[in-house]
Design a protein that fits this description.
mainly alpha; rod-shaped
């Protein structure tokens, strides 16, 4: 089998198959590169999105903490103002009660003086003086009772101011940050290998088969040689 056409056809067939295998390998590797690049881009976008979400959560937490601090400050200021006003009101009530008692005592002394100045004697004088003293004592008692009631009322108002302060502070609660986990890194696919020894061997066997077939066709057509001189085409090995 020295006819050059069949040899050329066999070599071309084997070379064409090897080139096809290499082209298929390059196309598959190009697809793998594209998928890896796409996965990497999606991963980088997820990383940026996670960082943005975490930054947003941190800013929200900081804003809530600032709001809580401001709310607590205003609540304390309002409470101190209410307590100061209540204390001032109690001092005014105490001052008014003291003045009333002093005025009643002065009136009682004037009444006693008038009685003594009238020059009367006997039990009637003593009774008049005792009546004046009883009136003064009753007035002092009523004034003290009213002051005690006012003091109790102011004490309850102070408690109410404390409850309102606590309620205003508790109206703002800490911000619970949402947790964003890091995205998983993509597992990149590796390139597939080329035809390798088996691929070249398969292409060589196929080329030999093509060359023999071409030679046999030419012999049968009377282009060269004799039909009896055509050897059978080799068979590819098969797995068991």
């Amino acid at each position: 089998m020295c006819e050059p056409v069949s040899i050329i056809m066999g070599v071309m067939s084997a070379g064409l198959q090897i080139m096809q295998q290499q082209a298929a390998t390059r196309a598959q590797n190009a697809q793998i590169d594209f998928e890896n690049m796409q996965a990497q881009q999606e991963y980088e976008y997820s990383v940026l999105q996670t960082q943005a979400n975490r930054t947003g959560e941190e800013q929200q937490r900081q804003l809530q903490e600032d709001l809580m601090a401001q709310n607590e400050y205003l609540a304390n200021e309002a409470y101190e103002s209410d307590i100061a006003q209540l204390n001032l009101q109690l001092m005014q009530e105490q001052e008014a009660a003291g003045q009333a008692k002093r005025g009643a005592a002065l009136e009682a002394m004037e009444a006693q003086g008038e009685i003594l100045a009238a020059g009367r004697f006997g039990n009637s004088i003593q009774n008049l003086i005792a009546d004046a003293r009883r009136e003064q004592a009753a007035f002092d008692y009523a004034t003290s009772q009213n002051l005690a009631f006012v003091g109790k009322q102011i004490q309850e108002q102070k408690r109410g101011a404390g409850v309102e302060r606590a309620s205003r502070i508790a109206s703002q609660q800490p911000y619970l940050e949402r947790t964003y986990l890091d995205p998983l890194k993509p597992i990149k696919r590796g390139h597939v290998s080329g035809p390798g020894f088996l691929g070249v061997l398969s292409a060589g066997v196929s080329g030999v088969s093509t060359g023999l077939s071409t030679y046999s066709t030419g012999v049968q057509a009377g282009l060269w040689g004799q039909p009896s001189a055509v050897p059978p085409a080799p068979k590819l090995p098969r797995g068991k």
